[in-house]
Design brief:
single chain, 158 residues, alpha/beta, 5-stranded mixed beta sheet, 5 helices
Length: 158
């Protein structure tokens, strides 16, 4: 699987305004709405689904990274986005540190294997110190897109 298969480049944010978990999730889902990937009427339901998933355990996996995700019945194809927070977000991370790089993934409920494969791809790339550091330093959506393309070409292969 490649980022190009599910990532919505038009929704990428490099100056996340939110400073807490719920506001961050709302801002990221809104970016997917604004990019035409999620219907406006599904906004609140998707936000609630992501927050409900967070209640099971924080997706702030440590090392300044979080991967909020959910499945939603009104989504017909998997979609993802990236947000960068310069100041850091309190995301109840496992290591207690603020989050600077966030990958969001929303999938249809009937595609669990694709959802899992996308999460595995994201986790694999975020384990790479160089990739993660470059993501944290990205200043434009184009820079993030370039990093995702390079990851798809295995330029960060561990």
């Amino acid at each position: 699987m490649k980022f190009a298969e599910f990532m919505c480049n038009k929704s990428i944010q490099v100056a996340l305004a939110a400073t807490d978990k719920e506001a961050t999730i709302r801002e990221m889902v809104q970016s997917l709405c604004d990019a035409g990937q999620i219907a406006k009427e599904d906004y609140e339901g998707i936000v609630r689904a992501v927050l409900k998933r967070e209640e099971l355990g924080s997706t702030g996996i440590g090392r300044c990274v979080a991967v909020p995700h959910t499945k939603h019945p009104n989504i017909s194809k998997m979609v993802g986005t990236v947000a960068i927070s310069q100041s850091g977000v309190d995301f109840d991370s496992l290591d207690g540190q603020p989050v600077h790089v966030l990958f969001m993934l929303i999938s249809p409920p009937d595609q669990p294997s694709e959802h899992l494969r996308a999460l595995e791809l994201i986790a694999k790339q975020l384990r790479d110190d160089t990739f993660r550091r470059f993501m944290m330093q990205a200043k434009t959506p184009e820079e993030v897109c370039q990093l995702l393309e390079e990851a798809d070409e295995d330029k960060f292969a561990m």
